[in-house]
Amino acid sequence: MTPRRDARPLCGTGRRAAIIAAVNDPAPPFPGVPAILLAAGASSRMGRPKALLPLAGAAFVDAVAETLRAGGARPVLVILGSHEAEIRRGAKLRDVEIVSHAGWAAGRTSSIQAGLRALPSDAPAAILALVDMPFVRSATVAALLRVHAAAPDDVEAVVPSFGGRRGHPVLLRRPLFPRVLALGPDEPLSTVIRAAHVLPVAVDDPGIHTDLDAPEDLPK
Q1: Residue 13 CB: number of other CB atoms within 10 A?
Q2: Structural contact between residues 161 and 110, judged by C-beta atoms closer than 8 angstroms
Q3: I want to staple 15 with a disulfide (CB 3.0 to 4.6 A). Which of 11, 122, 124, 188 is the partner?
Q4: Is the C-alpha dihedral spanning 30, 32, 33, 34 positive or negative?
Q5: Domain boundaries, position 42
């Protein structure tokens, strides 16, 4: 999803106040919202599996999964495709559910679709996270979950915003799932997001814009 500037508010004054309170609420978010962690790509620009790059002594895939869990997402589904065997050997992959996606080469959206199909049948929403964005804070994940719990029923997606620009991860509510599943395997998710009722949530987290695609992107 291409980040964009936030525009008009999407809720009335009372509802906005409730949502702001939800963002700042220190209590744990409501349980039952899973996360889909996309780690199936070939990492061709990086030249090695991004899921296994190190971050503070952990592989990216383990670090991002822990961020999602710390933020309150349960369960965490990790989508593996290219380099699956290598990632299984090299990462700890604790407290996650592995989804093997043989069709990963068809496009990123096919991996999202594989994750959606593997969700618990009663999942009210899902957070979509990327393995090459390891600097997202757990507080951002928690804010998405709290706002999801407080937002009106007509909101279809909740996205974080920093400095007026949207980023990742994104939370999709169940009414959007069929539209995502109807996309072509390489058709961008933004096709659905642009037409959805999206609620942007301001967070203090520059990590929502930091993706590491190539060696020159890595911290020195």
Answers
A1: 8
A2: no
A3: 11
A4: positive
A5: 13-217
Give whole-number Cα distances, 145 to 93, 188, 204, in Å.
23, 24, 16
Q: Give residues with Cβ within 8 angstroms of 200, minimum separation 6.
A: 6, 10, 158, 159, 160, 161, 166
Q: Is residue 30 part of a domain?
A: yes
The total number of structural domains that make up the chain: 1
Contacts of 163 (CB under 8 A, 6+ apart): 206
Number of helical (H) and strand (E) elements in the chain, helices listed first? 7, 10
Q: Are strands 157-162 and 76-80 parallel, antiparallel or unpaired?
A: unpaired
Maximal C-alpha separation, the chain: 51
Residue 81 lies in a domain: yes
CATH number at residue 46: 3.90.550.10
